[in-house]
Amino acid sequence: MICLRAAFPLTSSSSSPLRLALEPSSSRAAAAALRVAAMSSAVAAPVEHIVLIKVRPEAAASGAAAAMVSSLQALSTVVPGLSYIHVGPVLRLRSPAAEALGPTHILHSRYATKPDLAAYAAHPAHVAAVQGHVLPNALDTTAVDWVNAALVPSPVTPGSAVRLSLAKLKEGVEAHQLAEKLAAATAAAGEAKGAKVSFGENFSPARAKGYQFGMVAVFDSVEALDAVDGDGKVGEAKAIVRPLLDDVLELEFVVGPAVEAPAPANL
Q1: From the CB of residue 121, how many other CB atoms can be counted at a distance below 10 Å?
Q2: How far is CA 127 from the centre of its chain?
Q3: Which of 4, 75, 145, 244 is the most buried (most CB within 10 A)?
Q4: Where are the domains of the chain?
Q5: CA separation for the pair 116, 162 (Å, rounded)
Q6: Could you tell me which CATH class the domain 47-255 is placed in?
Q7: What is the pLDDT along the chain (267 residues), one digit of tens a residue?
C-alpha cells in the first residue's frame, strides 16, 4: 500500500473460460493479462489490501515460499469480488524502516468495496492458503488497508513496477491533511513521470505496526520507476508532504503474470 517515499522520495473486456480453454497457451496468457488489466482499471476507487511477509530462510530454500506464492496467487480464480491480486518477492527495500522490518514477499490486492475485502478474508480458499502456507512459513506479517483517495485510477498490469510506502504521521497531523497534501503534490509532480497513485488512511490498525497511511505508485516499468528519483518536480513535491511524516517504510516490487482461470473439465 504505499509509496510516499517512492513517488516522492524523502531521501537522496475479459474472455470466457470456454474460449480460453480453446486458445493456444500463448493466447491464453495474453487474454489473462488483458482480463487483469480490465478488472484493475474498472475499479476507480479500489479498496487496497497490502500484506508484507517475511518468510523463514528455510522456506525460501525448500520451495515452501514459492508454494505459498502460488497458493495465494491462485485465489484470483476462485474468490468472488477479488478484482486483482499480486503475490511475489520484494524487489528492493528502500528505507531504513523497510530494512528493519525485512519483508521478503508482498501481497497486493484490490476490491470494489470493504464487504468484498471482508468476504475475501473469510473465504475458505483464502483461509486454507493462510493456514497451510503463510502461517507455517512466515516469521512476521504486516497488513494495511485503505480506500483510494486519489482522483484518478491506478491500473496495475503484469510487468508494472510499484513503489509502496507506509507512513506514520507526526503528532497532531491527521490523515485527511496528508491526503490533501498528497493530492496537491501529485498534481504538482505531473503524476511523477507517468506514475499513477493510490493513497489513503489505513482502516485496519491491528496488524499495521503503527502505520496510519498507505500509498502505491504504479509505473510501466522498473526503468520508469528509477527515473522518478531524478525528476526535479518530484523533488519539489516531496517538500509538500515531508513535514507531515514521522517515519516512512518504502519498498518496491514488480507485478507478475496473471493467473489463468482453470479450463472447464471435458464432458
Answers
A1: 14
A2: 20
A3: 4
A4: 47-255
A5: 23
A6: alpha beta
A7: 334 443 433 333 333 222 222 233 444 444 444 444 444 444 556 899 999 999 999 999 999 999 999 999 999 999 999 989 999 999 999 999 999 999 999 999 999 999 999 999 999 999 999 999 999 999 999 999 999 998 878 899 999 999 999 999 999 999 999 999 888 877 766 555 678 889 999 999 999 999 999 999 999 999 999 988 777 777 777 788 889 999 999 999 999 886 665 554 444
